[in-house]
Write a structure and sequence with these properties.
Helix content: 10-25%
Largest sheet: 3 strands, mixed
CATH class: Alpha Beta
Number of helices: 8
Strand content: 15-25%
CATH architecture: 2-Layer Sandwich
CATH topology: Alpha-Beta Plaits
Structural class: alpha+beta
Shape: globular
Pfam families: Fer4_11
InterPro entries: 4Fe4S_Fe-S-bd, 4Fe4S_Fe_S_CS, ET_IronSulfur_Cluster-Binding
Radius of gyration: 19 Å
GO molecular function: 4 iron, 4 sulfur cluster binding; metal ion binding; oxidoreductase activity
Order of helices and strands: EHEEEEHEEHEHHEEEHHEHE
Protein name: 4Fe-4S ferredoxin iron-sulfur binding domain protein
Organism: Ferroglobus placidus (strain DSM 10642 / AEDII12DO)
Length: 251
Protein backbone atom coordinates (compact mmCIF):
# COMPACT_ATOMS: atom_id res chain seq x y z
CA UNK A 1 0.00 0.00 0.00
CA UNK A 2 1.23 3.45 -0.86
CA UNK A 3 1.99 5.79 2.04
CA UNK A 4 2.82 9.29 0.93
CA UNK A 5 5.31 11.65 2.51
CA UNK A 6 7.52 14.62 1.69
CA UNK A 7 11.12 15.62 2.26
CA UNK A 8 12.16 19.28 2.24
CA UNK A 9 15.85 20.06 1.86
CA UNK A 10 16.50 23.26 3.80
CA UNK A 11 19.81 23.67 1.98
CA UNK A 12 17.85 24.19 -1.23
CA UNK A 13 15.04 26.38 0.09
CA UNK A 14 15.69 30.01 -0.86
CA UNK A 15 12.69 31.41 0.97
CA UNK A 16 11.01 32.71 -2.20
CA UNK A 17 7.60 31.44 -1.11
CA UNK A 18 6.85 30.17 -4.62
CA UNK A 19 5.42 27.06 -2.92
CA UNK A 20 2.91 29.18 -1.02
CA UNK A 21 1.90 31.14 -4.10
CA UNK A 22 1.47 28.18 -6.43
CA UNK A 23 -0.42 26.34 -3.70
CA UNK A 24 -2.77 29.28 -3.38
CA UNK A 25 -3.24 29.48 -7.14
CA UNK A 26 -3.97 25.85 -7.93
CA UNK A 27 -6.03 25.15 -4.82
CA UNK A 28 -8.18 28.26 -5.09
CA UNK A 29 -7.17 29.24 -1.58
CA UNK A 30 -9.29 32.23 -0.48
CA UNK A 31 -7.77 35.68 0.16
CA UNK A 32 -6.21 35.93 3.59
CA UNK A 33 -5.75 32.16 3.77
CA UNK A 34 -2.54 30.24 3.16
CA UNK A 35 -2.07 26.48 3.15
CA UNK A 36 1.70 26.87 3.05
CA UNK A 37 3.92 29.25 4.95
CA UNK A 38 7.67 29.83 4.83
CA UNK A 39 9.33 31.29 7.90
CA UNK A 40 12.80 32.69 8.52
CA UNK A 41 13.92 30.75 11.56
CA UNK A 42 14.57 32.98 14.57
CA UNK A 43 13.59 36.20 12.80
CA UNK A 44 10.47 38.31 13.32
CA UNK A 45 10.42 39.23 9.64
CA UNK A 46 10.87 37.05 6.61
CA UNK A 47 14.25 37.19 4.87
CA UNK A 48 15.85 39.17 7.70
CA UNK A 49 18.93 37.32 9.02
CA UNK A 50 19.41 36.74 12.72
CA UNK A 51 22.61 37.36 14.68
CA UNK A 52 25.27 40.03 14.37
CA UNK A 53 27.66 40.51 11.49
CA UNK A 54 29.63 38.50 10.56
CA UNK A 55 27.89 35.71 12.50
CA UNK A 56 24.59 35.79 10.69
CA UNK A 57 22.13 33.01 10.04
CA UNK A 58 19.28 32.88 7.56
CA UNK A 59 17.43 29.58 7.41
CA UNK A 60 14.06 29.23 5.72
CA UNK A 61 11.48 26.78 7.00
CA UNK A 62 8.51 25.82 4.78
CA UNK A 63 5.56 24.52 6.80
CA UNK A 64 2.79 22.62 4.99
CA UNK A 65 0.38 20.22 6.68
CA UNK A 66 2.45 17.40 8.18
CA UNK A 67 -0.14 14.71 7.32
CA UNK A 68 0.67 13.11 10.66
CA UNK A 69 0.52 9.36 11.05
CA UNK A 70 -0.91 9.92 14.53
CA UNK A 71 -2.90 13.03 13.65
CA UNK A 72 -4.49 14.88 16.61
CA UNK A 73 -6.87 16.68 14.24
CA UNK A 74 -8.40 13.33 13.26
CA UNK A 75 -8.91 12.32 16.88
CA UNK A 76 -10.79 15.44 17.90
CA UNK A 77 -13.13 15.76 14.90
CA UNK A 78 -16.58 14.94 16.31
CA UNK A 79 -18.15 14.09 12.95
CA UNK A 80 -15.35 12.28 11.13
CA UNK A 81 -14.92 15.10 8.62
CA UNK A 82 -11.15 14.95 9.05
CA UNK A 83 -9.73 11.53 8.46
CA UNK A 84 -6.54 9.80 7.38
CA UNK A 85 -6.81 7.95 4.10
CA UNK A 86 -5.15 4.59 3.52
CA UNK A 87 -2.36 6.29 1.57
CA UNK A 88 -1.57 8.54 4.54
CA UNK A 89 -3.16 11.76 3.33
CA UNK A 90 -5.08 13.61 6.06
CA UNK A 91 -8.10 15.19 4.38
CA UNK A 92 -11.19 17.26 5.18
CA UNK A 93 -14.62 16.35 3.85
CA UNK A 94 -16.18 19.76 3.13
CA UNK A 95 -19.68 18.31 3.15
CA UNK A 96 -19.26 16.82 6.61
CA UNK A 97 -17.27 19.56 8.39
CA UNK A 98 -19.46 21.46 10.89
CA UNK A 99 -16.93 24.22 11.55
CA UNK A 100 -16.41 23.50 15.26
CA UNK A 101 -12.67 24.21 14.84
CA UNK A 102 -11.58 21.60 17.37
CA UNK A 103 -9.05 20.46 14.75
CA UNK A 104 -7.52 23.94 14.55
CA UNK A 105 -6.96 23.89 18.29
CA UNK A 106 -5.55 20.37 18.22
CA UNK A 107 -3.06 20.91 15.39
CA UNK A 108 0.35 21.77 16.91
CA UNK A 109 1.64 23.09 13.56
CA UNK A 110 -0.93 25.84 13.03
CA UNK A 111 -1.64 24.85 9.44
CA UNK A 112 -5.44 24.74 9.49
CA UNK A 113 -7.58 27.65 8.33
CA UNK A 114 -11.24 28.52 8.83
CA UNK A 115 -13.54 30.04 6.21
CA UNK A 116 -15.31 32.82 8.03
CA UNK A 117 -16.85 34.28 4.91
CA UNK A 118 -18.77 33.34 1.81
CA UNK A 119 -16.23 32.63 -0.94
CA UNK A 120 -17.68 35.09 -3.49
CA UNK A 121 -17.83 37.91 -0.95
CA UNK A 122 -14.30 37.12 0.20
CA UNK A 123 -12.89 37.38 -3.33
CA UNK A 124 -14.85 40.55 -4.03
CA UNK A 125 -13.50 42.28 -0.95
CA UNK A 126 -9.98 41.15 -1.77
CA UNK A 127 -10.16 42.75 -5.21
CA UNK A 128 -11.47 45.95 -3.65
CA UNK A 129 -8.68 46.01 -1.08
CA UNK A 130 -6.16 45.51 -3.88
CA UNK A 131 -7.43 48.69 -5.54
CA UNK A 132 -9.33 47.26 -8.49
CA UNK A 133 -12.23 49.27 -9.82
CA UNK A 134 -15.66 48.74 -8.37
CA UNK A 135 -17.45 45.74 -9.85
CA UNK A 136 -14.28 44.53 -11.58
CA UNK A 137 -14.75 41.20 -9.85
CA UNK A 138 -18.36 40.89 -11.00
CA UNK A 139 -17.59 41.84 -14.60
CA UNK A 140 -14.59 39.58 -15.03
CA UNK A 141 -16.08 36.73 -13.02
CA UNK A 142 -12.53 35.66 -12.27
CA UNK A 143 -11.55 32.88 -9.92
CA UNK A 144 -8.27 31.07 -9.74
CA UNK A 145 -7.70 27.41 -9.03
CA UNK A 146 -8.13 23.87 -10.30
CA UNK A 147 -11.55 24.04 -11.94
CA UNK A 148 -13.17 20.73 -11.00
CA UNK A 149 -14.54 19.30 -7.76
CA UNK A 150 -12.58 16.31 -6.52
CA UNK A 151 -13.99 13.42 -4.52
CA UNK A 152 -12.33 10.36 -3.06
CA UNK A 153 -13.33 6.90 -4.25
CA UNK A 154 -15.97 6.71 -1.54
CA UNK A 155 -17.48 10.00 -2.68
CA UNK A 156 -16.16 12.42 -0.09
CA UNK A 157 -15.66 16.00 -1.30
CA UNK A 158 -12.05 16.97 -0.59
CA UNK A 159 -11.58 19.77 -3.13
CA UNK A 160 -13.97 22.31 -4.53
CA UNK A 161 -13.08 25.61 -6.12
CA UNK A 162 -15.66 27.58 -4.17
CA UNK A 163 -15.22 26.65 -0.55
CA UNK A 164 -18.34 26.72 1.64
CA UNK A 165 -18.53 29.24 4.44
CA UNK A 166 -17.90 27.85 7.91
CA UNK A 167 -15.58 24.94 7.07
CA UNK A 168 -11.95 24.23 7.90
CA UNK A 169 -9.41 23.72 5.15
CA UNK A 170 -5.71 22.94 4.84
CA UNK A 171 -2.99 21.50 2.60
CA UNK A 172 -4.09 18.21 1.03
CA UNK A 173 -0.76 17.39 -0.67
CA UNK A 174 -2.83 18.41 -3.74
CA UNK A 175 -5.03 15.32 -3.55
CA UNK A 176 -6.68 16.21 -6.86
CA UNK A 177 -3.28 15.75 -8.55
CA UNK A 178 -1.93 12.91 -6.42
CA UNK A 179 -4.94 10.78 -7.34
CA UNK A 180 -3.90 11.25 -10.98
CA UNK A 181 -0.30 10.28 -10.30
CA UNK A 182 0.97 13.87 -10.33
CA UNK A 183 3.13 15.36 -7.58
CA UNK A 184 1.79 18.25 -5.45
CA UNK A 185 2.06 21.69 -7.00
CA UNK A 186 4.54 22.93 -4.38
CA UNK A 187 6.94 20.15 -5.40
CA UNK A 188 6.66 20.90 -9.10
CA UNK A 189 6.80 24.67 -8.59
CA UNK A 190 9.82 24.92 -6.29
CA UNK A 191 12.61 26.71 -8.22
CA UNK A 192 15.25 25.19 -5.94
CA UNK A 193 13.92 21.62 -6.22
CA UNK A 194 13.87 21.56 -2.44
CA UNK A 195 10.96 19.14 -2.15
CA UNK A 196 10.66 15.43 -2.88
CA UNK A 197 7.30 13.67 -2.68
CA UNK A 198 6.73 9.96 -2.85
CA UNK A 199 5.91 6.60 -1.34
CA UNK A 200 7.47 6.06 2.07
CA UNK A 201 6.76 2.33 1.91
CA UNK A 202 8.56 1.80 -1.41
CA UNK A 203 12.23 1.14 -0.60
CA UNK A 204 13.21 2.12 -4.14
CA UNK A 205 11.41 5.47 -4.18
CA UNK A 206 13.50 8.63 -4.18
CA UNK A 207 12.09 9.72 -0.84
CA UNK A 208 12.93 6.38 0.79
CA UNK A 209 16.49 6.60 -0.48
CA UNK A 210 16.84 10.10 0.95
CA UNK A 211 15.49 9.03 4.32
CA UNK A 212 17.87 6.09 4.31
CA UNK A 213 20.97 8.02 3.29
CA UNK A 214 20.54 11.49 4.76
CA UNK A 215 20.16 12.95 8.23
CA UNK A 216 16.62 14.25 8.63
CA UNK A 217 14.37 15.58 11.37
CA UNK A 218 10.69 16.28 11.86
CA UNK A 219 8.97 19.15 13.63
CA UNK A 220 7.82 18.60 17.22
CA UNK A 221 8.64 14.91 17.13
CA UNK A 222 8.37 14.77 20.91
CA UNK A 223 4.59 15.12 20.61
CA UNK A 224 4.29 11.71 19.00
CA UNK A 225 2.29 12.96 16.02
CA UNK A 226 4.66 11.18 13.60
CA UNK A 227 4.66 13.79 10.82
CA UNK A 228 5.19 12.55 7.27
CA UNK A 229 7.05 15.73 6.32
CA UNK A 230 10.78 15.39 6.88
CA UNK A 231 13.47 18.07 6.74
CA UNK A 232 17.08 17.81 5.70
CA UNK A 233 18.88 20.21 8.07
CA UNK A 234 20.92 23.04 6.61
CA UNK A 235 24.66 22.69 6.40
CA UNK A 236 26.67 25.54 7.82
CA UNK A 237 29.98 26.70 6.40
CA UNK A 238 32.31 27.37 9.29
CA UNK A 239 35.24 28.30 7.07
CA UNK A 240 35.70 28.77 3.39
CA UNK A 241 35.52 25.37 1.79
CA UNK A 242 34.46 23.58 4.99
CA UNK A 243 31.01 22.39 5.93
CA UNK A 244 29.74 21.55 9.39
CA UNK A 245 26.51 19.58 9.33
CA UNK A 246 25.39 20.83 12.72
CA UNK A 247 21.64 21.29 12.76
CA UNK A 248 20.49 24.90 12.65
CA UNK A 249 16.86 23.98 13.11
CA UNK A 250 15.46 21.60 15.65
CA UNK A 251 11.90 20.34 15.78
Amino acid sequence: MVRYGMVIDLNRCIGCRSCAVICKMVNSVPPGTWWQRVETVGSKEHMVPVGEYPNLSEVFLPVPCMHCENAPCVKVCPVGATWKREDGLVLVDFERCIGCRYCITACPYGVRQFNWQDADENFKQAFERAGFEENWYAVKDYKHGYPFDHRTKDGRLVYTKTRPRGVVEKCTFCVQFVDKGIAPACVRGCPGNARVFGDLDDPNSEISKILRDRSVFRLLEELGTEPKVFYIPPARKTKRGEVDYKEEVKG
